[in-house]
Write a structure and sequence with these properties.
alpha/beta, 38% helix, seven-stranded parallel β-sheet
Length: 324
C-alpha cells in the first residue's frame, strides 16, 4: 500500500513509518516539523505541510493516490491545553477537518487516528474499557473526543472507514536506539526521569503527592511505542473487513505510580533519580489504566513489552546515545 503518515517526524509517527516500511508498504511522511524532527524521517519521503494550511495539504495529496492515512498530528500537552485551549481546538479539531476534507477530495477512505485515554476523564472504574463514559476534563481530551465524533459522522455521510486508537502512556524506543522520544518541551514522565539521571536538567518534578492512590502519586498505564505501531497496522487490516468508525483502547492493563516508575528507572540505570515534589498539574486524573480486551479480541493485538523495566531500558539505551 501507499500510506501517508501525518506527523511521521514525531515520536509515535516515526515508529509507525519504520514498521510500515519494514512490512513493504510505501511511506510518505507529512509533517510541518514544528515539533517533529527531520532526522527521524528515515523511512519514506518527507513532505512538509501544515494541517492548518489547506493549500499545503492539497499539494501533498495532488498527483498521488494514497490507500490509507495514519494521523498523528496534534498538540498533546494536557497542562498547555488548559492554558491555551484555542490552540488545541484549532490544531486537533480544525486541522483534522482540513485533513479529512483533503482525503475526501482525493477519495482516500481509510484512516487510523491517534486518539487518547484523555477522552475518558476521571475514571469511574479500576480498568477503563471502551464502554466507560467519555467525559474529558481538559481541552486536549475534549479535542480528541470531538474528532472521534467527527469520524463517526463521516462514516455515515461520506463512507470514511476509520479506527481511533485510545492509547494510554506511550513509552520506550526502538531496540537499536535509532529513534526515540524527543520533545523540545518534554512533559512525559519516563524521558524526564532519564534526563534527570543524565544530568540534562534539574531534579525531576513530581506533580502531586496527595492523590487517592497507595503512595499519593498518579498511576498510569505504560505501553511501548513499538506495540502501539503494531496496533495501528492491525487496525488498518481490520478496516478491510469492518467498514465504519471504530475505537479501541490500548494499554498493558497494569498501572504504575510515579514513585514506582522512579524506582524502576533507578534499578535500570543503576543511579539515583533526583526528584522533588511539586503542586498538581491542572487536568491530571489520579489513575488511568486500560482494559485492552476489545483490541485483543477484535484486532488480535497484545502488547509484547509488558515489563516496566524492559520498557524503561529501551528508552534508556536511546537517551544515553543522545548528545544532550
Amino acid at each position: 500500500m501507499r500510506t501517508l503518515v501525518c506527523g511521521g517526524a514525531g515520536y509515535i509517527g516515526s515508529h509507525m513509518a519504520r514498521l510500515l516500511a519494514a512490512q513493504g508498504h510505501e511511506v510518505v511522511v507529512l509533517d510541518d516539523l514544528s515539533s517533529g524532527h527531520a532526522q527521524a524521517v528515515q523511512w519514506g519521503r518527507l513532505v512538509e505541510a501544515d494541517v492548518l494550511h489547506p493549500p499545503s495539504l492539497e499539494e501533498a495529496f495532488a498527483g498521488q493516490r494514497f490507500d490509507a492515512v495514519f494521523h498523528f498530528c496534534a498538540r498533546s500537552l494536557v497542562a498547555e491545553s488548559v492554558a491555551r485551549p484555542y490552540d488545541y481546538y484549532a490544531t486537533n479539531v480544525v486541522g483534522t477537518l482540513n485533513l479529512l476534507e483533503a482525503m475526501r477530495r482525493h477519495e482516500v477512505r481509510r484512516l487510523v487516528f491517534s486518539s487518547s485515554a484523555s477522552v475518558f476523564g476521571q475514571p469511574a472504574t479500576g480498568m477503563v474499557d471502551e464502554d466507560h463514559p467519555t467525559q474529558p476534563i481538559n481541552p486536549y481530551g475534549a479535542s480528541k473526543l470531538m474528532v472521534e465524533r467527527i469520524l463517526a459522522d463521516a462514516a455515515t455521510a461520506y463512507g470514511l472507514d476509520s479506527v481511533a486508537l485510545r492509547y494510554f502512556n506511550a513509552a520506550g524506543a526502538t531496540a537499536d536506539a535509532r529513534i526515540g522520544e524527543s520533545h523540545a518541551c518534554e512533559t512525559h514522565l519516563i524521558p524526564n526521569v532519564l534526563r534527570s539521571v543524565l544530568g540534562d536538567r534539574l531534579a525531576l518534578k513530581v506533580f502531586g503527592g496527595d492523590y487517592p492512590t497507595p503512595d499519593g502519586t498518579c498511576i498510569r498505564d505504560y505501553v511501548h511505542v513499538e506495540d502501539l505501531a503494531q496496533a495501528h497496522l492491525l487496525a488498518l487490516d481490520y478496516l478491510g473487513a469492518h467498514p465504519g468508525a471504530h475505537a479501541f483502547n490500548l494499554g498493558n492493563g497494569r498501572g504504575f505510580s510515579v514513585r514506582e516508575v522512579i524506582a524502576a528507572a533507578s534499578a535500570v540505570t543503576g543511579r539515583a533519580v533526583p526528584w522533588e515534589m511539586a503542586p498538581r498539574r491542572a487536568g491530571d486524573p489520579a489513575v488511568l489504566v486500560a482494559s485492552s480486551r476489545r483490541a485483543k479480541a477484535e484486532l488480535g493485538w497484545s502488547p509484547t513489552w509488558t515489563d516496566l523495566e524492559a520498557i524503561i531500558e529501551s528508552a534508556w539505551r536511546w537517551h544515553r546515545a543522545q548528545p544532550w
